[in-house]
Amino acid sequence: MQNFTFDNKTKIIFGKDKEQVVGEESVVYGKKLLLHYGGGSIKESGLYDTVLNSLKEQNIEVYELGGVKPNPRVSLVREGVTLCKENNIDFILAVGGGSVIDSAKAIAAGAKYDGDVWDFFTGKGAVTECLPIGVVLTIPAAGSESSAGTVITNEDGDYKRATGSLLMRPQFAILNPVLTYTLPSYQTACGVTDMMAHILERYFTNEKNVELTDRLCEATLKTIINNAHTVIEEPTNYDARAEIMWAGTIAHNDLLDTGRIGDWASHDIEHEISGIYDIAHGAGLAIIFPAWMKYVYKHDINRFVQFANRVWDVEIDLNNPEKTALAGIKKLEQFFSSIGMPVSLKEVDINDEHFTEMAKKATERWPLGNFVKLHADDVEKIYQLAR
Amino acid sequence: MQNFTFDNKTKIIFGKDKEQVVGEESVVYGKKLLLHYGGGSIKESGLYDTVLNSLKEQNIEVYELGGVKPNPRVSLVREGVTLCKENNIDFILAVGGGSVIDSAKAIAAGAKYDGDVWDFFTGKGAVTECLPIGVVLTIPAAGSESSAGTVITNEDGDYKRATGSLLMRPQFAILNPVLTYTLPSYQTACGVTDMMAHILERYFTNEKNVELTDRLCEATLKTIINNAHTVIEEPTNYDARAEIMWAGTIAHNDLLDTGRIGDWASHDIEHEISGIYDIAHGAGLAIIFPAWMKYVYKHDINRFVQFANRVWDVEIDLNNPEKTALAGIKKLEQFFSSIGMPVSLKEVDINDEHFTEMAKKATERWPLGNFVKLHADDVEKIYQLAR
Questions:
Q1: Which residue in chain B has the smallest CA separation from A218?
Q2: Which ipTM did the prediction report?
Q3: Claim to verify: residue B121 and residue B188 sit in the same structural domain
Q4: Residues from chain A contacting residue B192 (CB–CB below 8 Å)
Q5: Residue B367: which CATH number?
Q6: Of the residues A179, A198, A215, which one is the last residue of a structural domain?
Q7: Closest approach of B369 to chain A, Cα-based (Å)
Q8: Interface of B with A (CB under 8 A)
Q9: Secondary structure (H, E, C), chain A
């Protein structure tokens, strides 16, 4: 087990009607608030009004910036930064899913920075100060509600890049499973895939003595797998929605990282796809993860055997562990298919046109991954395997 | 799943040599520090010097209060409160195990309270302010290093009582598994039992839809069970010590509480024993928990079947689930025995002399437990089952 620091201060407020306390939770951080959100869905659902009323009850002055899109753009972030600087905003409230929260995090850091906010994503600048952030979560998927990271797309060159700082962790996150009832099944499935991918990135590590985190990963994966079909077939099943929502946070709050170094190649490989093609991040992961597994499993067959056995209940074939390992990968692929995810690039009409370019771009700063280090030619082979 | 708030701000600093950063972690909270500890073991091991040097490097003025005993006494807490008030202490550093940390928490709250500190334990006073606390942990067991609770014994009447407040959660906890190498095997086993009991108290709940927390509980229990014999047989096995140490924190940091109401009767039933007889808390729990289980399992046989199957790999006998449930309880009892714990009061020379009195005292404020509500006569029967 490696040395680690686990430092997650996000207060999780979970359950029915909890969005009604957003005002009292926010006012602790100041009286001038930027309300950040995506499209019209929060207005249609009534959530927008509930939030606004709760904020007004606390006499909070509310500035607004809507319009966050999936794969949030740096242009809108820059707009938010300007808004915050010009109006001396104290606090940013993100109401939405991972894209809105990621956008809010970038704005929060940019608001306290003299240079261009994109600097954080190129390594040119570091986050040393940040406005506090709160979250009302509507899409369980990205885990951004209590993570320290953000992923932003720069339209100028279609770069999708991640950065992180403990300062970016939200102060609180309100998770009401009822708010996820209206998510279309495809988006629900993308969320399920995304949270599973967050765990898998951590699970495939070269660290040998991480039994507790291995088992916590397996526990969370099993819970997601057991509830995924229910939330898709019965969108208003509170208990299943609650399991998925809480699992999505646990998957990415860094608990499952403790004592180990995760891989993260699949996320980077996928980012190139959704950076160019604008497909859902979850769908891209459902395509890339099994392909990545097929490419790397021989590096540590035992770990893939453990995955097959403990997560998918595949019996271990002691005479042929490779068969067990491959059966686990197959189970994952079949599961993604069963919840309506694509598992090949063909299914989403992506051909090999940009493979070389994407592989090059993904690895231009450093080789990807930690479980196995991947260079451009490896990444291109994974795109091929994903066809 | 019930609504919940999960709010744990304790920063965990885990790994080899991490006690060396205690000065820089502490100085954030002020320059006048109370160093609180137990007996001479931290001086013999050199930990005392390491901590003191690290504090002095930050020019922290150190006041000292040693002498904390297992089942920490309110008399020493009162001494600490006076010390803090007279010297305007900013921060309390607990170096030791659960007793030292619990004592530090009571002092921290008492230092900001006008009345007598025992008021917090009788319900007469509430914690509304508290000095910040830091921890260097030497005994993985109580989980007090990131919990919000404390248990103190009042010698005047042999009362052992618990209280809690989010304000009491330590700001940071330093966990170096190497510091636990010198723990005698009996104490190690007591710690293992204590942390398992913390999970079991949460596991046996009437809440039906808590799959994620159930599985996280099972993951942590399995890890403890798998590593317990190793830490006893090979006290300097870093990896096993690390698993046990991290599991002890997870067991009691409230993550495994989310969405459910735990039971906690067994802790209260045990407190009466260790309040009178001064036996180790862990040993008392190894005796009481199986007895409690035998008394209540019929209330929800399926939950005990799940426990037997998922934690102990007992095959489910569908024609006789009761048999499976009892097999799980038996496995737990055998496990406690196998690590050198007593599983009956006889083994620790406790006869039935005080059963009626202890049962009455345990239930004098309210009936115990949530899974099943227990009154004095129930508790007395559990003491009888534990003979």
A1: B219
A2: 0.96
A3: no
A4: none
A5: 1.20.1090.10
A6: A179
A7: 24
A8: 1-9, 11-16, 18, 208-209, 211-212, 215-216, 218-220, 222-223, 226-227, 238-239, 242-243, 246-247, 250, 255, 258-259
A9: CCCEEECCCCEEEECCCHHHHHHHHHHCCCCEEEEEECCCHHHHCCHHHHHHHHHHHCCCEEEEECCCCCCCEHHHHHHHHHHHHHHCCCEEEEEECHHHHHHHHHHHHHCCCCCCCCHHHHCCCCCCCCCCEEEEECCCCCCCCCCCEEEEEECCCCEEEEEECHHHCCCEEEECHHHHCCCCHHHHHHHHHHHHHHHHHHHCCCCCCCHHHHHHHHHHHHHHHHHHHHHHHCCCCHHHHHHHHHHHHHCCCCHHHCCCCCCCHHHHHHHHHHHHHCCCHHHHHHHHHHHHHHHHHHHHHHHHHHHHHHHHCCCCCCCCHHHHHHHHHHHHHHHHHHCCCCCCCHHHCCCHHHHHHHHHHHCCCCCECCCCCECHHHHHHHHHHCC
